[in-house]
Write a structure and sequence with these properties.
Elements (H helix, E strand, L loop, with lengths): L1 H8 L7 H15 L5 E4 L6 H9 L4 E6 L2 H11 L8 E5 L7 H6 L5 E5 L6 H6 L16 H6 L6 H12 L5 E8 H15 L4 E8 L1 H5 L5 E8 L7 E4 L7 E8 L2 E3 L2 H6 L13 E2 L6 H4 E6 L2 E3 L5 E3 L5 E5 L1 H5 L8 E4 L11 H5 L1 H9 L1 H5 L25 E6 L8 E3 L8 E2 L3 E6 L2 H11 L2 H8 L12 H4 L4 H7 L3 H8 L3 E4 L2 E4 L8
Parallel strand pairs: 1-2, 1-4, 2-3, 4-5, 6-8, 15-19
Antiparallel strand pairs: 5-7, 6-7, 8-9, 9-10, 11-20, 12-13, 12-16, 13-14, 15-16, 17-18, 17-20, 21-22
Helix pairs in contact: 2-3, 8-9, 20-21
Length: about 500
Amino acid sequence: MAKSIEKWQFGDFQTPDDLAKEVVRTLKVNHHISPEIVIEPSCGKGAFVRAALNVFENSKVIGLDINGAYVEEAKLSVSEYSNFENATIYESDFFCTNWEDIISDLPGYILVLGNPPWVTSSELSSLNGQNFPAKSNFQNRRGIEAITGSGNFDISEWMLLKYVEWLSSKEGTIAVLCKYSVARKVMRQIKQKSGNGRFSTHIYLIDAKAYFGASVEACLFILSTDSDSSLDCKVYENLRSKRISYLIGERDGLILRDTVKYEKWRYLAGQNLRYIWRSGIKHDCSKVMELEKVHDALFLNGMGEKYSLEESYLYPLLKSSDLGNGRTNNYRKLILITQRSVGDDTSLIQDTSPKTWQYLLEHDGYLRNRKSSIYRNKPPYSIFGVGSYSFKNWKIAISGFYKHLRFCLVEPLDGKPVMFDDTVNFLSFETEEEAKFIFKLVTSRPSLEFLNAMIFWDEKRPITIDILRRLSLKAVARELGVLEKYLQWAEAFQVASDGQLELGLAEQPSP
């Protein structure tokens, strides 16, 4: 157990020799790198030092690590190399090292190589780890996080941005193994600070599970000082690939996963006033608000308690896992919907459904102790993510968590409209005909390719309302040759938005 804690305290994922060799081979063969200096700022047991000595035979190699035992092991491992005198390995804490002095004295083309810690600042703090940078507002956070430095961030992100600073007046390449999400964050930070900057970027995807036993999307991230620094980031399927899989880049103020696909369908971007994507119900108390039907009017809550309740306020509930797996024809639980729109007076339940009101009173403590500030100064037993749109019979829904664009057409169940939890995004409709028509638009090839171009599938919640709302259904209808039929639905509409009725609004024209 102690070794496990130490591993996480230092973000310690030692690089296998075969992976280090493959990385260095890729740098030489694919990118024609021939550095005067190779520096490995967190060299561990020396896999990258050995790989560099083997491939860049005439380069000077410098390795540093905070772990003295690792440093000694690394020194011993290179002692049998004929060019071992080219390697200098010593113990040093990255975050206490005067890198400016070291880098300024290095001549020629520099290769910064390695595998920075795969750990976040909060993970280190939870283990009382000390191997992390002084608190700072390097991510431009606001409020208390900016003051205390308490915002969670990847240690490797901070280190990579330091590497970028080292090459601000030098020629060289940074080549590191890191989480795919970290590579994108670094690209975004560089863009924000210096526009296109002076780096060209490449990403080679790697199998982190096979090499490190880590269930995370990872890559070899390469940044080189280059005259072509304005180009998009080229992404390759693996270290052996020569063919570009897709290009990450910025268009229209957005960081996109696939700029080629986005530009192909760019004209599908626009706003929809007729069809607005919503999130499901937020209640933050599943043990009380979600129930299973035992029989007739008897229901079981999450604490194993059985209650006889009226069904007036109970609705079928589908969750992300149901939609992600296509389970939409039946439901496992019901959800207690206490309001028709946000802010409604919940005391009306007492008159119409006294058993339900008594149930809420008996669980008052649970509901009052919900931590989110959104419930403050609201009627008791309030929920959020509810409006007239929630009670429409037909819906198109998609899980925000699952790693594929699986839209589901959801019909009423047991004569009631289906509700979703707040990890689900959906459109709602009064009629089956309209729902099926829009479903064909949303699931068409142009729509799916356009949306897929914007989604980074390694994100915790890859499919967001913000992304879904960028697709103009009017533009899709025009592309598919069904604009006239679309306009039949859209011209004379009335939609409820956030509890307020919007009348006679014409949809904004698509670009």
